Amino acid sequence: MTHSTIQIISGSYRGNDVAGKVFELVEQFKTGAKGGFVTVKNGNTFPGFSDVIRINVTSPMDYQFVTGGVAHAVTAPATSESDDEVIERIRERFDILDEMTKAATNGDIRAMIVSGPPGVGKSFGVEKIVDKACLFDKVAGKRLRAEVVKGAASSLGLYSTLYKYSDANCVLVFDDCDSILLDDTSLNLLKGALDSGKKRKISWLSDSHMLKREGIPSSFEFNGSVIFITNIKFDTMRSQKLRDHLDALQSRCHYLDLTLDTMRDKILRIKQISKDGELFADLDLEPVAQDEVIEFMETNQNKLREMSLRMALKVAQLRKSFPNSWKRMAQTTCMKS
Which domains does the chain have, with CATH numbers? Predict the structure, then answer.
């Protein structure tokens, strides 16, 4: 019997950083009450602990399969782009995301997948536009025609949610729901909702007391729009089984890769949002202090727990609250031990 072996790109076990370590895979990525994890055999990595352990990871992109001792690494292509060109590329992608989200709220685009790393602002613009589309509903006291679904979702819960927002003017945003992609039943439901055909019929063939209790039929036509926001980069997924499913999803709808593939891209995204005046607007931070925060992050890019807009705000909050000791505090609270 052949066993799959993985190498952790970014992850931890009981507070210990396991980046670079290799394990025998037991079970692929799942999401639990405390976040994402992948199940592996301990081997001799952590003596005295269970033979099978859960490594804390954010998404399937945080580990890679290894064949013959060689890891299938995801590498960024060489680039000759200047910083300004990179910023413009990223800005254009996010502008396209805004425009396509508006089209989805109007029913002109029925399905879209948005891919990008965590903490770069994928959700912010989408939620802002969706909230604006629901403004009349709020004023009129009506049921909102859109919902943002976050975190884990069961297949039955997914079916129920799709039914509740199946009308032509409805919009469903799935944010950080990557567990849906790892469940065959949920994947098939999502495929039905994202299908490009004229009619999108979705069915639940198993008996369910919950559906009967809520008056939800065993099949219905879905006419709403779906935006699926994910940390998974479809084009570089190495698991063949999951890749086949992702290819099927891609073929059914618009797929927008925000092309934030390198550390440089993420840093320049942070600089772009800061330059536009949006990143530190609520902190009332002086321009010099803002530059110090970004310079600190750029200098310590390989030591920070993550390179993201969230991390920039954390460091900026320390800069504002502790002007004389913020760097020491950031080293303790924001960096890998």
Answer: 5-71 (no CATH), 83-257 (3.40.50.300), 263-333 (no CATH)
